[in-house]
Amino acid sequence: MRPIFRALPAGRLALSVALTALMAAPALAAPMACGPAGPSRLTVSGTGQTRVAPDMATVQLGVTTQADSAAAAMEQNSTQQGAVIEALTGAGIDQAQIQTSGLNLNPLMQYGENRAPTVTGYQATNTVAVRVSDLARLGEVLDAIVTAGANEINGITFSREDGGDAQDQARRDAVADARRKADLLAEAAGVDLGPVLTLRDIQTGGGGPRPMMRMEAAMADAVPIQAGEVEMSAQVEVEYALAGEGACAPIGPRDNGMQHGDHGHGMAEHGGPEGGSDGGPVNPPMPGDGAPAPDEPIVPGIVEPLPETPAN
Question: Are 211 and 248 a contacting pair, CB within 8 Å?
């Protein structure tokens, strides 16, 4: 049979070529096994913790003084705090490990009934954060600063300077915990667990290691200090696709030819290639309405350009 050359209107030509391309490459045009709605999804969270011995402590300490005048309170405080810093450096603490974290000067007020408050003096407070990397000498350092004049210790935080490996292990444990939960839930629902769709590392509140005390960690004969362990924690959120019988998401009224999340931006609602004017599928052109016969090869005709409109 001799090929039939026929020039088609531009709209039908484009539609015919598109249909031919779909039939020639079914693997590319084939919808998902679950249809437009896609597979059901399962979202789980997982947590992981690792514990390691700390190798550093941060101490918040300070000096508080009172005097009749603001100048006297500050002068007394500076002298006393200078002695504390000198004691720290004498105990082997480098200057880079000592940082001022607060400096306050406040009036001391006296309140009475039916009379205005009066200032009775001033209070000065100077606090510093001290990093101690030799935990075996931490009790000795605390003794030295108290002897030198420190009268406030606001807390000790133990940490791990090289805790990256422990934190990474906590993340691995978190992912494994999420997988364990997903396997259990999928088995209970009678479906198979598919591939990972999304994976998020959730930053946990508090950010940093938490001290885990243990009594046998007491050290130093001066101030008894329990270093214990620090806990590295991690949390992840994983979304899996589900597979197997019964794993397909149900198709709602608006899923007729559209993926979830398509709110009218596709062509299915507007009579384009994905749907008719009523949202339904488009039937291929039939013989007799300008379309080629089933055994007739499609050869695009030459569409003559429209004549240019003369300018006014």
Answer: no
Q: Is the pTM of this model over 0.70?
A: no
The ranges of the chain annotated as CATH 3.30.110.170 are: 41-53+163-243
The CATH classification number of 41-53+163-243 equals 3.30.110.170
Note the pLDDT tens digit of each residue in 170-224: 999 999 999 999 999 999 988 899 999 999 999 875 444 444 333 233 333 556 7
Quick one: average pLDDT of 62-85? 94
Residue 294, pLDDT above cutoff 50: yes
The class (CATH top level) of 56-159 is alpha beta
Rounded CA gap, 299 and 276, in Å? 26
- Identify which of 245, 248, 195, 196 has the alpha carbon closest to the alpha carbon of residue 36: 248
Q: HSE on the CB side for 94, CA within 13 Å?
A: 4
Q: Are 88 and 98 in contact (CB under 8 A)?
A: yes
Q: Are 204 and 234 a contacting pair, CB within 8 Å? A: yes
The DSSP symbol for 97 reads G
Q: Which two tokens stand for residue 40?
A: 């059901």
Q: How much is the pLDDT for 49?
A: 92
